[in-house]
TrEMBL record:
Organism from which the protein derives: Rhizobium dioscoreae
Sequence ranges assigned to domain Signal transduction histidine kinase HWE region in this UniProt record: 153-235
Keyword Endoplasmic reticulum in record: no
Amino-acid biosynthesis is among the record's keywords: no
Catalytic reaction list: ATP + protein L-histidine = ADP + protein N-phospho-L-histidine
Pfam short name (any one): HWE_HK
Gene Ontology MF, one: kinase activity
Protein name (database record): histidine kinase
This enzyme's EC code(s): 2.7.13.3
InterPro entries: HATPase_C_sf, Sig_transdc_His_kinase_HWE
Length: 344
């Protein structure tokens, strides 16, 4: 929503002679319509800059300088805006002559003419109808702004997805020793990425619940055998970027466990736990047990390097990865605020 929405809900009165402005203000006030009187050219320019909903002007008030000031405002108003101008004519003045003159000065403007004396009901009806039209214009403006924001968000998300796919491809290519292994690993990582994006989409594109991300990420490994990956922790909402990063890290850890760790043996088990400390940190622990003896590799694989880099970028602190003989242990501590949706 744009700022100053209420500025479309009031009437600018230009009636410097007799008591016309005072009568108009009283008439509109009885219907709870705010009216502001322009007394002089400078005040007129200042009030036009505040975006009135409707202008009500007497014919004799529209001297060339006033016409020019209103014309400038009409030209500078945004595309969604079409400010109605209600003009009160003297009975002896032909409306066609005034309309032709003002249409030249104010091309494509919305002009409504009333010949005096005009009944209060008729004038109020015209003002209220014009204000309602302005509110509908505001709705159009809001719709346009939402569409623009959605296009920007879509462009951002597509770029992020393509970047993630490119990283996954490079990571998988460097590790693969055969085309079949490459195809399996790449398909698994894309599935993890697709699952987490589905979860974020189901949450209106802004956030996803931690346990839901874990469930989607680990479901392919459960399909291959027993349910040997457990997870537990409080309900936490993750931003779309954090959910994607954590899902890919968990997928990488699970893939490694399937090839070399706890999931290589039927009795192997994995637990993922998370908690929030009193100082606002999110604590993560990935723990493997029951697999073959673990020893630290002589050189880190690309998957391990990805996990270290991704978690560091996400939390601002590096993870701890320990290769205990009993099983791999990966822990991470970092501010919860860094992974939470920004609008919470």
């Amino acid at each position: 929503m744009a700022a100053n929405d209420s500025h479309l809900d009031w009437v600018l009165v230009i009636a410097p002679y007799r008591r016309d402005a005072e009568h108009l203000e009283i008439l509109l006030a009885e219907e709870d319509v705010i009216a502001r009187r322009a007394e002089g050219l400078e005040q007129l320019r200042a009030l036009l800059a505040q975006t009135p909903g409707v202008v009500v002007a007497t014919q004799e008030a529209l001297d060339p300088e006033v016409q020019k000031a209103i014309g400038r405002h009409l030209v500078e108003q945004p595309e969604w805006s079409e400010m109605p101008i209600l003009i009160l004519l003297d009975r002896m003045v032909p409306p066609t002559r005034v309309q032709a003159e003002l249409s030249t000065v104010w091309p494509r403007s919305r002009q409504l003419y009333y010949q005096r004396p005009v009944t209060a009901l008729e004038l109020l009806s015209g003002v209220q109808s014009s204000l309602l039209a302005r509110l509908r214009q505001r709705d159009v403006r809001d719709h346009i702004e939402r569409e623009r924001e959605l296009r920007r968000e879509l462009n951002h998300r597509v770029k992020n997805i393509l970047s993630s796919i490119s990283s996954i491809f490079q990571m998988t290519r460097r590790r693969a020793v055969s085309l079949d292994e490459f195809a399996d690993d790449f398909a698994g990582r894309l599935a993890a990425l697709a699952n987490v994006h589905s979860a974020v989409f189901q949450a209106n594109g802004d956030a996803a619940e931690f346990s839901h991300i874990a469930e989607l990420t680990f479901s392919p490994y459960r399909a291959k055998g027993a349910d040997r990956i457990s997870f537990a922790g409080p309900e936490i909402l993750l931003s779309a970027e954090a959910a994607t990063t954590l899902a890919l890290c968990f997928h990488e850890l699970a893939t490694n466990a399937l090839k070399y760790g706890a999931l290589l043996k039927p009795e192997g088990r994995i637990s993922l736990k998370w908690s929030v400390s009193q100082d606002g940190n999110l604590d993560l622990e990935w723990l493997e047990r029951g697999g073959p003896p673990v020893s630290e590799p002589k050189r880190s694989g690309y998957g391990t390097r990805y996990i270290r880099s991704a978690l560091y970028n996400l939390f601002g602190t590096p993870p701890t990865i320990l290769f205990h003989p009993q099983g791999l242990r990966c822990t991470q501590v970092g501010p919860l605020a860094r992974v939470s949706p920004k609008d919470l």
